[in-house]
Amino acid sequence: MTVQVLYFAALREALGCAGEEIALPSEVDTVGQLRQYLATREPSWQPLAAMKNLRMAINQGMASPDARVRDGDEVAFFPPVTGG
Amino acid sequence: MSVSVQAEDFDANQELDKLTAGRTDIGALVSFTGLVRDSHQGVDISDMTLEYYPGMTEKALADIVAQAQSRWPIQGVRVIHRYGRLLPGERIVFVAVTASHRGEAFLACEFIMDYLKTSAPFWKKEGTAEGGQWVDARESDEQARQRWS
Fold first, then answer.
1. Is there a contact between B104 and B30 (Cβ–Cβ < 8 Å)?
2. ipTM
3. Residue of B56, B118, B120 lying closest to A57 (CB–CB)
4. For residue A8, which of A52, A39, A49, A48 has the smallest C-alpha distance?
5. Cβ contact (<8 Å) for B124 and A62?
6. pTM here?
7. Of A2, A3, A6, A1, which Cα lies nearest the Cα of A77?
8. Residues B98, B20: Cα–Cα separation, whole Å
9. What is the rounded distance in angstroms from the CA atom of residue A72 to the CA atom of residue A4?
10. Is A81 part of the contact surface with chain B (CB cutoff 8 Å)?
11. Is the dihedral of CA B80, B134, B41, B49 positive or negative?
């Protein structure tokens, strides 16, 4: 199972990464679990765990941490929005 | 209903003309334009850079417009939001609504802005003397959104 992960704004800067393709481990079912998995790979990924009020989206729709992630999904992590 | 996410500036007057051209059934035309200010909470701002999420941002704006259309009997809606590097005084966002009467036109325009501020994927970074600073989301914007529930 692979998913495309995107990072935006201050999170993207803190991680030094705009996006990556991830092979999902079998134990990762939800986007919350995906966040945990990605954030604990290495110390440089810690900002993904630490960011307060982190927002998540699956296939360009907002998602809660317990939403399921499936093969081929596009997942995005970003800070609360500040447009307008 | 028309939504644009673009780097280029827009002409608000032209957009208003387009909404009413050839129409004689419109009684009210309401619009809002958001602009870059040169200071924020006492700090001088030299520029503002807007980032967005290609694909999701357009969908989110279209969804907000659809919600406004289902809540009020409005006729046309036009939303434009820029991205990229903008200077103080430049236009950022434009929302215009047409309707038979002013009540629903005013309400729909305000609703769209309150929802755009809290759910459209854009992020602002301000240029200051201390370097670039990402703007924090504001509790007051979230409260403005919740008035509509």
1. no
2. 0.95
3. B56
4. A48
5. no
6. 0.95
7. A6
8. 8
9. 7
10. yes
11. negative
In angstroms, rounded to a whole number, what is the distance separating the alpha carbons of residues A83 and B95?
13
- B46: helix, coil or strand? coil
Helix (H) or strand (E) holding A36: helix A31-39
Helices B102-119 and B56-71 meet at what angle, rounded to 10? 150
**Would you give per-residue pLDDT tens digits along chain B (149 residues)?**
799 999 999 999 999 999 999 999 999 999 999 999 999 989 999 999 999 999 999 999 999 999 999 999 999 999 999 999 999 999 999 999 999 999 999 999 999 999 999 999 999 999 999 999 999 999 999 999 999 99
Beta sheet of A61-63, edge-to-edge order: A19-23, A2-7, A74-78, A55-58, A61-63
Which residue type does B63 have? D
- At B23, phi and psi to the nearest 5? -105, 140
Which two three-digit tokens encode residue B97? 């609504």
Please tell me the distance from the alpha carbon of residue B35 to that of residue B25, in angstroms, as a whole number.
31
- Which chain A residue shows the shortest CA-CA distance from B94? A84
Of B65, B66, B103, B69, nearest to B81 by C-alpha is B65
CB contact under 8 A, A78 and B92: no
Rg (CA), chain A: 12
Provide the 8-state DSSP code for B77: E
DSSP state of B8: S
